[in-house]
Write a structure and sequence with these properties.
Six copies of one chain form a homohexamer. Chain A is mainly α and 79 residues long. In chain A, 65% of the residues lie in helices and 0% in strands. In chain A, helix 1 packs across helix 3. Chains A, B, C, D, E, F: It holds the Pfam family HTHP.
């Protein structure tokens, strides 16, 4: 991992709305995949694999749910 | 991901009842799958796959449970 | 999902005892499977599959553990 | 599930020590498997399967870790 | 499970440093595997399996992360 | 495991920014894999396996998300 890769857009967990928090969760999950597999071509190919695989789509959802739990707590659930 | 896709119906984690919180968890889990695989036809086909696969049904349950944990905390557990 | 399906018996996370909280966790996990696969016959067949598969039984346990964590927090751990 | 099956020994999450909390986590995880597969003979056979499978042993550990997180919180971490 | 097996070294979640907390998480995860598969010879063989399997190594990491979350909370994150 | 292996760089969960917290989560996840499989050559080979496998990349993301949840809580979410 190059330390200079941006892992959290804006370098903050605070967002204005739940919707933006959810978008951040998706981006954070994708950036971990990017830092683990930096090759754009390979990553693009793998995206085609998991986007058509039911089990992997569910697993993507599990990861986003875990990232979102952290973001939601950071924002006091936008109460 | 198009940023304009609605990821949280109502853009809020607050719900009137646990039942509605549970429905929100299901919807949020499904919207992540939708944003990852936007093609309606492919998604419909994959739904047929996981709805008849015991392991995947359990995995769906795991994801909904994680989403619901966040929603329940946001609502102070509807105490 | 039909919104009218009951997803949380009693529409509350509050239970009198840990035992009842555990029973609620099991029911909530099963109701997610039911809402994802509403066909009783298929669900009965799949139950026969996971009840004899060690890996799936462990996965069921993981899901129930996650649901129970939420219920236990809702009840202040019945302290 | 028969509602009368004991799911939490002692019907309490409170234990005297972390060791006892850990033992409770293991028992709670096993009781979910028991309630999902009540047949002693089948369960004994499946135990032989997962006890010799590296991936399943790791998955058992994940489930116990999740149950223990709840028990530890219930006991204020025995601080 | 023999109740007399030590499941948490020192019978406490409190550690002096994050490093020691991490070591405790690893030990706790291993002791669950030991209590589930008490045979040293079989366990040694399985260790050879998961130590050379990428997916299982990742799963070990997931379990340790979950154990560590509990230990870190118990120690108020060593703030 | 040799107890002298560094498992948490800096022996602290406290970081200046979310970005640094994310980098720490990645490092902590990798150090667990390193302590479980200390052989550099084997680990390098396995990295080649999971970096080209969609399901494993998702699983890496799940583990990092769990580590990050702990680090974020330790830092009061850098609010």
């Amino acid at each position: 991992m190059s330390e200079s890769v941006q892992l959290i857009p804006g370098n903050s967990l605070i967002t204005a709305t739940p919707q933006e928090g959810r978008e951040l969760a998706i981006k954070m999950a994708r950036l971990i995949i990017k830092v683990t597999q930096p090759d754009d071509e390979i990553r693009g190919r793998l995206r085609g694999v998991y986007a058509e695989d039911a089990a992997m789509l569910i697993a993507v959802g599990q990861t986003v749910a875990t990232e979102f739990a952290t973001i939601a707590a950071a924002n006091n659930y936008w109460r």
